[in-house]
Write a structure and sequence with these properties.
Radius of gyration: 15 Å
Number of helices: 3
CATH class: Alpha Beta
CATH superfamily: PAS domain
Distance between the termini: 29 Å
Order of helices and strands: HEEHHEEEE
Number of strands: 6
Strand content: 25-35%
CATH topology: Beta-Lactamase
Helix content: 10-25%
Largest sheet: 6 strands, antiparallel
Strand order of the largest sheet: 2-1-5-4-3-6
CATH architecture: 2-Layer Sandwich
Length: 184
């Protein structure tokens, strides 16, 4: 059983589950207007035809926190090093390949310097051909733990758990991405 730290993360998971029939929810049935209170903290990443992750949707709270509009931009443009991007990219591709989800906790700092713990939920969505090609991401920010340099950063992976959605989870030797002072 999943242990959510934030009630809104659990609400998003329940909503995603309600859209499942025999497989993954289709990106076409995903309607942020059905859950307006949660929409500002959501992202939708798509693995596009160029084999690159693109932010197809980025909620206002996420964009305000990182200090930039993400919608329509490539994910790799926001990583300070190829190694950190490669680990994150590998983890996200694994979630699409199985398909499975992930519940994670990170220490993060926003563009204004606010430091807090964040709970992130990653869930796959099916594309046109019924296979997973998008990730729904929900970012719940917990209490502020301090203030630091005014630059967005993920400084520590506190915990990460794969979510078996009925197809298993990635191989045990696939490391869950652990950013080391990586910019968002």
């Amino acid at each position: 059983m999943l242990e959510f730290r934030h009630c809104d993360t659990e609400r998003l998971y329940s909503h995603w589950q309600s859209l499942r029939e025999d497989g993954l929810p289709s990106h076409r049935c995903w309607d942020p207007a059905q859950i307006p209170k949660l929409t500002p903290n959501m992202l939708i990443l798509e693995l596009n035809s160029d084999d690159d992750f693109v932010y197809r949707f980025a909620g206002t709270e996420v964009c305000d926190f990182v200090g930039v509009e993400l919608t329509g931009r490539r994910m790799k443009d926001f990583f300070p090093s190829p190694d950190v991007y490669a680990a994150t990219d590998s983890m996200q591709r694994a979630m699409l390949g199985v398909p499975c989800g992930q519940l994670s906790s990170y220490k993060v700092r926003g563009a204004a310097g606010r430091e807090c713990d964040a709970e992130l939920l990653f869930l796959p969505l099916a594309g046109k051909n019924g296979t997973a090609d998008r990730l729904l991401v929900y970012m719940a920010l917990a209490e502020t733990t301090g203030f630091g340099e005014a630059a967005p950063e993920v400084s520590e992976n506190i915990e990460a758990t794969w979510i078996d959605l009925g197809w298993g989870v990635p191989e045990a030797d696939l490391a869950i991405a652990e950013p080391q002072n990586s910019h968002i």
